Amino acid sequence: MDYTQLKSGTDIRGVAVDGVEGQPVTLTDAAVEAILASFLMWCKRHLGLSAHGLRVAVGRDSRVSGPRIVQAIQRVLLRYGAVGLDCGLASTPSMFLATLDLDCPCAVQVTASHHPYYRNGLKFFTKEGGLDGPDIAEILEGANQGLAPAKELPGSWEPVDHMTTYAATLRDIIKKGVNAGDYDHPLQGFHIVVDAGNGAGGFYATDVLAPLGADITGSQFLEPDGMFPNHIPNPEDQAAMDSIARATVKAGADLGVIFDTDVDRGGAVDREGKEINRNRLVALASAIALENCPGGTIVTDSITSDGLKEYIERTLGGRHYRYQRGYKNVINKALELNAQGVDCPLAIETSGHAAMRDNYFLDDGAYLVTQIIIKLAKLRQEGKDLEDLLAPLKEPMEAAEVRLPILDKDFREAGQSLIDELEIYARAQGWAIAPDNREGLRVSFPRGEGDGWFLLRLSVHDPILPLNLESNSHGGVAQIAEKLKTFFQAHHEGVDVSPVEKL
């Protein structure tokens, strides 16, 4: 097969479990071995390190195909003389930190994030962070060419308990951040419910919170189960958020937290079960990040609300920089801005990917939740709660997202053409095009004409035009959709615009 088809942004992903109708296995043992051999050659070219003696940390999330894929990785490392450090069940962020803690130049994580149980994938790290899209493309093309080290030398494979180190680091961060009278038990008196979705995040309840004195009763789905029998481990999934909300309220807890499968994303709910997710999560993370960075710039993806911008800039005194969708896009933009001298402490996507400067700009759900818990403890010392901090955030009354399938074979050209035509139409209608838009087309409407905005953009990976709409008034989304319907009736070549009509 053409291994470049396994590229998914900055990840490698494919079908890894046999027997699912219409889903033939693509992430085979042969594919994994070819990709790992090519990765070793990438290390030679970019790090100047040969495979012989190269220390590579290897971890996995709870997916049922994980052990098989790790065994394929092991075979390659042993074949070419590398030193494999088997971290076992691990979070994705911990595998980056393994490159620092275990003195190894690179790491591999076996994960497919929130994707269905039958999919899996690979993520690669060096001490500089996760490999980017061009690196992944290079590795996959090398796999196509059969690139591999010239010499076969015996390697080694050894188990390493790095998650214990990682959990201890998180505990220390909470101890220092809260600085309670009982320093070693700063969460005494707090009740926090954790939902790990049967992924790799169960350790956070048992190894981070409980030793610090927190009551974790009511926590659920902590046991790793790669079939994900209870709900999709994804903070963006409504059923998952409803699950943690019910558990938190039932337990009478102060806070509920939820992770995706590999713990690079997190979300939360307050004591009343109200979600701290999407715009509310971005707002809370921004408040935390700007505490020690007055006037700093927060980079977000493009679909954040107008109320969030106002909260960041007027309530918090920071600056809001809307950028493209894709967690790696916002992280790279934050790195770029800092290099230019712009004080930027946080890059965050509404999906829950949050990367803070004081944590290597690593998107780490456990670190984000840790900072939220510290903030909760500090607010309690002042007689306040998280809701007091978020009270000034204006949230839209209505919101909707529809996805318009692009039917044209050259979907990027067709999609961009439609966006360009809509921009011409918007200018002719006198619509207010956002001056800070950096992806697709964002247009705002005043009260009486929709009282909100829409954003039409190209999907990062798929032949889809996502359309997001928000309004501050009842019926506003339908009003904006009606304006768009008029345009789409005359301009719909190569795109299925029927989802707009349903609004």
Task: Describe it.
This protein is an alpha/beta fold. It is 37% helix and 20% strand. The strands form four sheets. Strands 1, 2, 3, 4, 5, 6, 7 and 8 form an eight-stranded mixed beta sheet that branches. Helix 3 packs across helix 5, helix 5 packs across helix 6 and helix 5 runs parallel beside helix 11. The radius of gyration is 23 Å and the shape is globular.
Strand-helix topology:
Blueprint: E1 7-8, E2 11-15, H1 29-47, E3 55-60, H2 66-79, E4 83-89, H3 92-101, E5 106-110, E6 119-126, E7 129-130, H4 133-144, E8 156-159, H5 162-178, E9 192-195, H6 203-209, H7 238-251, E10 255-259, E11 266-270, E12 275-276, H8 279-290, E13 297-300, H9 306-315, E14 319-322, H10 327-339, E15 346-348, E16 354-356, E17 362-363, H11 365-381, H12 386-390, E18 398-405, H13 411-429, E19 432-433, E20 441-445, E21 452-456, E22 464-471, H14 476-490, H15 498-501
Parallel strand pairs: 3-4, 3-5, 4-8, 9-10, 13-14, 13-15
Antiparallel strand pairs: 1-2, 2-6, 5-6, 6-7, 10-11, 11-12, 15-16, 16-17, 18-22, 19-20, 20-21, 21-22
Helix pairs in contact: 1-2, 1-4, 3-5, 5-6, 5-11
